Amino acid sequence: MDESNSTPVLTSAGPPAPLNAAAAGSRYAFVAIPLALLGWAIALVPPLSITIALRLRELDLDRSAANLGIVLGVGALFSFITNPLAGRLSDRTTSRFGMRKPWIFGGAVIGYLGIAVIAYAPNVALVVIGWSIAQIGLNFCLAALIAMLPDQVSPDSRGRVASFISLAQNVGGVGAAFLVQLFPIGALQGLVPSLVGVVLMLAVVAPIKDRVRTERPTERFDLKTLFGSFVFNPRRYPDLGWAWLTRFFLNTTQFTATSYLTYFLIAEFDVSDADAPTMVFKAVLVNAIGLLIVTPILGWLSDKLGRRKPFVILSSLIATAGLIVIALSSTIPMLLLGELILGAGVGAFFAVELALIADVLPNEETAGKDLGVANLAQSLPQSLIPIAAPSVIGAFGYPGLFLGGALFGILGALGVTRVRKVR
């Protein structure tokens, strides 16, 4: 039997006693999970990539770059804490509405309240508070949505669904950037796009037949269990450890390219604050074109061949090349070419990486917790890059920041070769 397809999943025919699971492979879930993550991305991207940066320039122009590092770093710390904790809590939830959906709906409300705080914040401190609240809420949504993948999708279809999830999240970035640039600088620039995303996410999640836990978990939720939400044993589960590192390296490459894009355009290409959202939209759109070309094909091909690692290696090298082109850009067309190449590389990676993670999960009973820990590899770069970026930019400029991100792409290609269970 192909090892990449050996991870057990719950089916309606034989779930463990405490759980009542939806049928794995539900056709609606195939579509709904990616669409929900499309909405999640539309809600998250406006503040993450554009509106916080512009708001900070309004509040304190001279310290805006340093303040952006503080805001993104503190918010990412809350993301780091929330994601695995939310996964663990959803694994233990006994609500009649399901294990995952209560956290998605509750998190969406909290997340949007945080975005509203950012929109009207009169000082940097309240921007920090608002973004922290938004990260808490939206990461409750993310952890529960990602946990639905092994709940709802059988192993031989995960590559395709994971590729559509990647596609949806990145197209969501394009949609968010498009909506943002429709509005002048101000509160509506952040509030309306994020509201569209939240409404879409909740609308498509509502009809999903969620897993229902019919008995309380036997494990006590004490301090040991709480701190256990943030770790796994890489010696006992080395494949998950190497898959985690690979995800961390490639997300570092990706986030390096997006977190300071607005300021890069303003500083290096003399783009005005008013024009920055439109230029970011163009860059994100070109990036998504590269992703759209690659992602669906490679997700399907990965399932067809039963292989994940070759696609991750290829994607790492392509993404590295794209970030190098961005770093060396002297014109807008050259920058857009780099975004196109980077999009193809990121698309190739995200076409298979979530399926790779799902294939090496050690236990379906703790899928939410383990996927939450895996999601730390996505949120941790968002904490570390804002801390390091101001110093790197001060010493080497924005090209130095992007070349540093490219190095992590190479490390990602090396890391995935150590995964043994998956071909």
CATH topology: Growth Hormone, Chain: A
How many discrete domains? 1
Classify the beta-strand content into a percent band: under 5%
CATH architectural group: Up-down Bundle
Determine the CATH superfamily. Answer: MFS general substrate transporter like domains
Taken in chain order, the helices and strands follow as: EHHHHHHEHHHHHHHH
Give the termini separation.
12 Å
In total, the number of strands is 2
Structure annotation, total helices: 14
The radius of gyration computed from the alpha-carbon positions, rounded to a whole number of angstroms, is 20 Å
Question: Helix share of residues?
Answer: over 70%
Q: Which strand order do you get reading across the main beta sheet?
A: 1-2
Regions with little confidence, pLDDT below 50 for 5+ residues = 1-25
InterPro entries: MFS_dom, MFS_trans_sf, Sugar_transporter_CS
Subcellular location: Cell membrane
Protein name: Putative MFS permease
Domain Major facilitator superfamily (MFS) profile: 27-423
Textual characterization of the structure:
By secondary structure, the protein is mainly α. It has a single domain, classed as MFS general substrate transporter like domains (Growth Hormone, Chain: A). It has 14 helices and 2 strands, in the order βααααααβαααααααα. It has helices at 27-59, 64-92, 101-120, 124-152, 158-180, 188-205, 223-228, 238-259, 261-269, 276-305, 309-327, 332-350, 353-359, 367-416; strands at residues 19-20, 212-213. Strands 1-2 form a two-stranded antiparallel sheet. α4 (124-152) crosses α14 and α5 packs across α13. The longest helix is centred in the C-terminal third of the chain and has 50 residues, at 367-416. It is globular. The chain starts with 18 loop residues before the first strand and ends in a 7-residue tail after the last helix. Residues 1-25 have low confidence and may be disordered. Keywords: Membrane, Transmembrane, Transmembrane helix. Its main location: membrane. One of its GO terms (molecular function) is transmembrane transporter activity. The chain crosses the membrane at residues 28-53, 65-82, 103-122, 128-149, 161-180, 186-206, 279-299, 311-334, 340-361, 399-417. It comes from Actinoplanes friuliensis DSM 7358.
